[in-house]
Structures are given as structure tokens and as C-alpha cells.
């Protein structure tokens, strides 16, 4: 196992090197440019230097006057030494802005993923065990509705009903107007209250695909020969389903769980935008709009690292869930 993990980590470093170069290449080719907009702002000031001089000065300051290869090597050297630079948009160190926003998105993602698992997995199992029944059709219809609903459309419906019609929640924002006057517990409850609709949106639009995934894999397992043998031995249906069948259904679910690791930290760009939640998705969107290379590079590299670790975690968990799986 140790040899396997070290080999995978070495391969992950090589993949990460290629991924970060592609990301840097794309960032340098963005149509939006911070230095161009900043040079325009400085050039219009009374008695300022021409736009071309400001542009050349800013490009030299941020290393954009070099070609892409030299620019990437310079960024890679700074990144490996822990020098992530300052965000061009937020004018604070990249790591500081990242820490201020990522944990809010993580809380939203973790809570919605928890509800997604405890709702989708049991419903998928029930739909598979009652195939072609009314229950199966009802669950499948609910799943297809969840898959078909775009997050922006469903979020708009929730805001229209719960915020506009009923007035239970604010339309946008993370805190209320009287937030500073509340006690610490009141401030906590105020933020939790504002996160209800975003978390509900993330949960509903994600349940359908996982539910269908569980149902399909459960049906495949229930039709296996060893399940028919277990039933022929006189085992109870509950033991056949939850002791024999469901354990084998867990193997594909490991892939989902391992692949969900980046999603917990990546933020929900559309949902955060619609509800005005200042998470990492909200911050990264506006950073990319103006071509904020330091923040965008750190954010996407962070997600690339999590993706590689998630895949490695999934491979290791295969052996934990299924004793038949061995590294050799």
C-alpha cells in the first residue's frame, strides 16, 4: 500500500505540473486584463503618463512582459516557496482572501452533501427494491425533476415563494440589517437563517443524479446470482438487501464520495451569486472577470490538488469497502 501511494503521489505531482501550466496559459489568454483596466484608470488622471507607459510599467511589475514559459516558471517558483502574491482585485494577500471566503462555501457544501447522501441513497435503494411500482415511479419522477431543474431557476422559485410571497427570508445577503446589534448566538442564527435557501437549492438540484446512480447500481446487484442464492437459502429480504446487496452498491458510491472532495471547497458560483453569499465561488468569479491571475491561479491549483487527492482517496477506499480489491 505504501509503495502504491508513493507511486500515485509522484504521478500526481507530474499531472499537477501539467495542469497548472495549462491553467496559467489560459489565464494569460483571458480577454479581460487587470493591468489594462488599471493602466486606463491611471492614464486619465491629470498630468499622468500615457496609457502605453503605464501598461508597460504594470506588465513589468507583474511579470507579464515575459513570455508564457518564463512567466509560468516565475509563478511556479513563487508558488513552491509559499509566495502566493496579492490579489489584484481585492488588494489583500491571496491566502487571506481565500481563508475569508472558502470556509463559508465549505459549510454550505458539506451540509448540502450530508443531506444529499441521507436522502438520495435510501430513496435509491427503495426505488430499486420496488422496481416498476408506484413508489419507484414517484421517486424516479422526483429524481428527474431534480436533474432537470437548473440551479438558477430553482433558486429563483425559492426566492419568489419564500422571500417575496411569504417574507420568511431575505432576498440576498448573509446577514440582516441589525446583525451588529445581535448577541453572538443571535448572529450565528442570523447567518444560519440566511443559508437555508442556498443549502436547499444545492441539495435539491444534486439529489436526482445520485438517486438514479444508486438505483441503477442497486438493480444490477439485485440481479446477480449470489443474491438469488441468498434468497434461495431462506434469508430475510431485509438481510439480503442491506447486508449483501447494499455493501456491493457501496463500491460505486466511493467514487462519488471521493470525487465530491473538491466540490466541498470549490463553492457554488451560481447559487452564491443569486443569493449574494460571499463565498469562494462568488470571489473567484469576480477575480476571473478582471483577470486577477494570482487569486485565480491559487484557487484553481487548490482545486486541482483536491481532485488528485480525492481520486487517490477513492482508490484506497475501494480496498476498505470491498475486501476482494487488492493493490497487487
Please report the first level of CATH classification, the CATH class of the largest domain: Mainly Alpha
Number of strands: 0
CATH architecture of the largest domain: Orthogonal Bundle
Distance between the ends: 9 Å
Structural class: mainly alpha
General form: globular
- Measured by DSSP, the beta-strand proportion falls in under 5%
> What is the domain total for the residues?
2
The topology string of helices and strands comes to: HHHHHHHHHHHHHHH
Q: How large is the count of helical segments?
A: 15
Task: Please write out the topology.
Elements: H1 2-28, H2 34-43, H3 51-61, H4 68-80, H5 94-129, H6 134-148, H7 151-165, H8 184-194, H9 196-222, H10 225-232, H11 237-259, H12 261-266, H13 269-275, H14 280-289, H15 293-321
Helix pairs in contact: 1-15, 2-3, 5-6, 5-9, 6-9, 7-9, 7-13, 9-11, 11-15, 13-14
Brief account:
The protein is 76% helix and 0% strand. With 328 residues, it is an all-alpha fold.
Describe the structure.
It is globular and about 90 Å long. It is mainly α and 328 residues long. It is built from 15 helices and no strands. The relative contact order is 0.14. The model has no long low-confidence stretch (mean pLDDT 85). The chain folds into 2 domains: 32-68, no CATH class; 106-292 and 304-321, MetI-like fold (Orthogonal Bundle).
Amino acid at each position: 500500500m505504501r509503495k502504491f501511494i508513493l507511486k500515485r503521489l509522484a504521478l500526481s505531482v507530474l499531472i499537477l505540473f501539467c495542469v497548472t501550466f495549462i491553467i496559467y496559459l489560459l489565464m494569460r489568454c483571458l480577454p479581460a486584463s487587470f493591468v489594462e483596466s488599471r493602466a486606463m484608470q491611471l492614464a486619465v488622471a491629470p498630468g499622468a503618463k500615457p496609457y502605453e507607459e503605464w501598461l508597460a510599467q504594470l506588465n513589468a511589475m507583474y511579470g507579464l512582459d515575459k513570455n508564457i514559459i518564463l512567466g509560468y516558471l516565475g509563478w511556479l517558483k513563487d508558488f513552491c516557496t509559499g509566495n502566493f502574491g496579492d490579489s489584484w482585485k481585492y488588494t489583500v494577500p491571496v491566502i487571506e482572501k481565500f481563508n475569508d471566503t472558502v470556509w463559508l462555501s465549505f459549510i454550505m457544501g458539506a451540509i448540502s452533501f450530508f443531506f444529499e447522501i441521507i436522502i438520495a441513497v435510501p430513496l435509491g435503494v427503495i426505488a430499486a427494491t420496488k422496481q416498476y411500482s408506484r413508489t419507484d415511479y414517484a421517486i424516479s419522477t422526483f429524481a428527474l425533476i431534480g436533474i432537470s431543474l437548473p440551479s438558477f431557476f430553482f433558486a429563483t422559485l425559492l426566492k419568489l415563494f419564500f422571500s417575496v410571497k411569504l417574507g420568511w427570508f431575505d432576498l440576498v445577503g448573509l446577514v440582516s440589517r441589525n446583525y451588529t446589534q445581535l448577541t453572538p448566538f443571535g448572529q450565528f442564527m442570523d447567518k444560519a437563517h440566511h443559508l437555508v435557501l442556498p443549502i436547499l437549492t444545492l441539495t435539491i438540484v444534486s439529489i436526482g443524479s445520485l438517486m438514479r446512480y444508486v438505483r441503477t447500481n442497486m438493480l444490477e446487484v439485485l440481479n446477480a446470482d449470489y443474491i438469488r442464492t441468498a434468497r434461495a437459502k431462506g434469508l430475510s429480504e431485509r438481510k439480503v438487501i442491506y447486508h449483501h446487496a447494499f455493501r456491493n452498491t457501496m463500491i460505486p458510491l466511493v467514487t462519488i464520495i471521493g470525487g465530491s472532495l473538491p466540490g466541498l471547497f470549490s463553492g457554488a458560483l451560481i447559487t452564491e451569486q443569486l443569493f449574494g453569499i460571499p463565498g469562494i465561488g462568488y470571489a473567484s468569479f469576480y477575480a476571473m472577470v478582471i483577470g486577477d491571475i494570482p487569486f485565480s491561479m491559487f484557487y484553481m491549483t487548490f482545486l486541482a490538488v483536491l481532485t488528485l487527492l480525492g481520486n487517490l482517496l477513492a482508490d484506497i477506499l475501494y480496498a476498505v469497502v470491498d475486501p476482494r480489491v487488492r493493490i497487487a
